[in-house]
Structure prediction request, 215 residues.
Amino acid sequence: MTQLPQPPFADPRAAKAAAAAEKAYRKAQRPWFKKKRFILPIAFFVLLILLVSLGSGGDRPAATTSGGAPAAAERDPSAPPAFPGAKDDDVVAQAGASITTDSKITMTATKLTPGDATIQKTLCSTVTYQNGGSDTASFNGVFDWKLQDPNGAIVMSGLLGSDNALNSGQLTPGGKTTGDVCFEAPQGSPSGTYVLLLDPSFRLTSDRIAWINNL
Prediction:
């Protein structure tokens, strides 16, 4: 259909309003995937998935003993879990073993022993970080460490039990730090399997490192 030319005496304001209406109509007719309110959330979601993928694959721990022998072989899917509540991607080792990640951060956790009991009974482990990588590494003695007792209760580390508690901070390449992580002993101090867990709260990967203690 041929559009008739506008008469010279047409109202300029009416013509401007008509042009704006036509522009709005064309914008409304665009496919949904070309609109900004859809493009931006989708782009953010894709970026988030990419970051999670990179984070979960870039720092996978590998358990080794101080002598270099494997501390925990690949788990047989048909075998029972290493401990109650264990996840498929947990890295499991015996107390005292060294754990080295792909970024060359080596961590060692000694067997749990009774800590100071002036206020309450505690269990403590001396942990050591050795940064053999090329990037600065973070550590946190309060929020990163947890203990699972034989009853299946998981508690966070506390401030009592040792005068040499592990602090929080950064470790430069080649740096090393050692400190104690202590926990309130469960009521009655039952014997059985205690699991020391390195489970940082702020990270993208879901991998945990578990040291098994049979007390």
Summary: The chain has a mean pLDDT of 78. The chain has two helices and 13 strands.
